[in-house]
Amino acid sequence: KIAKGDFSPIPPMCKYRGEFTTVELAINQMIQELQLREVAMIESHKLRAIGTLTAGVAHELNNPLNNIMLTAHAMLEDHKALSEDELLEMINDVINEADRSRKIIRNLLDFAREGESVSGPLDLAALVNETIKLAQNQIKVTGTKIETQIQTHLPQIRGDKQQLKQVFLNLILNALDAVGKQGTIKISLEQADNPGFLAVKVEDNGSGIPDYILPNIFDPFFTTKGPGKGTGLGLSVSHGIVNIHGGQISIESEEGKYSRFTVILPSLNVPADFKKP
C-alpha cells in the first residue's frame, strides 16, 4: 500500500492484535510525520519563491515612487505659481502612480496570503495566466520575452490552486534564471496526447542541461545553480505536487540550446467556461 504511494492510515484489524497492532501504530505515526514534513517542505519552498518575487517588486516599485516624489516636490515648491487645472493634473498623476504601485504588490500579497490547502475544480488556463502575472515584475527586471499559447475552452482539472500555482511559478522562475537578460520563454497549455489530460509546457532558450544531469534533475537538494543561489528543492517539491495531483512532470533539454518542462494533469469532463443553467 505505502509502496504504491497510498499514505492513508492503516485501519485497525481486530483479528490480529499484539505485535501487529504495535507495527500498525508505528507505521501510522510514520505516515503522519511524512505528511507533516511534506507540508513543511512545500511551505518552505513557497517562502523562497516569495523572496525571489519581492526583489522584482522592489525594483519595479522604484519608478512609480520616484514619480510620486518628484511630483510632490514640484507641487510643494511651485504650488503658488500653478493654476488649479495644473494642480489637479499633478494630483491625478500622484493617484495614478499610487494605484500602479498597489497593483504591483497586489499579486504578490495574494500569493503570500493563500492559506490552507483546498482541492477543487480549476480553470487551468486562468491559473497559468495568473501565475505569469504574478511573475511579471521579475520578467520586466530581466527583460525576458514571454510568448504564450494558452488554449481556452478546455476541460477543468481538480486540484489545489495554491500548490499548482507554486509549481508553475517555480518553472517560470527557473526559466528566467536560465535565459538571463533578453532571453525568450514560451509557455503553452493544450490538450495532451493522452485523452483526458492537459499539458502545460514551459520552454526557455537558455544554456540547457547536460545529458548526464537530467536523471537527477528532480532529486531533492540537487541543483545546477551556484552556491547560495538555490536549495535544490524547487523541482523536487514540484515533482511531488504534480504526483499528488495524479499527473507527471518531465524535462527535455539540449545543452546550449533549450530546456522544456512539461506538466501533464488529468482533466475533468467539464469545460472551463461551463456555467450551470
Structure characterization notes:
The protein has helices at residues 19-78, 84-113, 124-134, 136-142, 161-179, 234-244; strands spanning 119-122, 145-150, 155-160, 184-191, 197-204, 248-254, 258-271. Helices cover 50% and strands 19% of the residues. The radius of gyration is 24 Å and the shape is elongated. It has two domains: 1-113, Helix Hairpins; 119-271, Histidine kinase-like ATPase, C-terminal domain (Heat Shock Protein 90, 2-Layer Sandwich), CATH 3.30.565. Helix 3 packs across helix 5 (161-179). The model is unreliable at 1-5 (pLDDT under 50).
Q: What is the correct CATH architecture of the largest domain?
A: 2-Layer Sandwich
Q: What sequence of helices (H) and strands (E) makes up the elements?
A: HHEHHEEHEEHEE
CATH superfamily of the largest domain: Histidine kinase-like ATPase, C-terminal domain
Largest sheet: 7 strands, mixed
The N- to C-terminal Cα distance equals 42 Å
- What's the number of extended β-strand segments? 7
Q: What is the radius of gyration computed over CA atoms, rounded to a whole number of angstroms? A: 24 Å
Question: What is the CATH fold-level name of the largest domain?
Answer: Heat Shock Protein 90
Domain count, please report it: 2
Which ranges are low-confidence, i.e. pLDDT below 50, for 5 or more consecutive residues? Answer: 1-5
Shape call:
elongated
Strand content: 15-25%
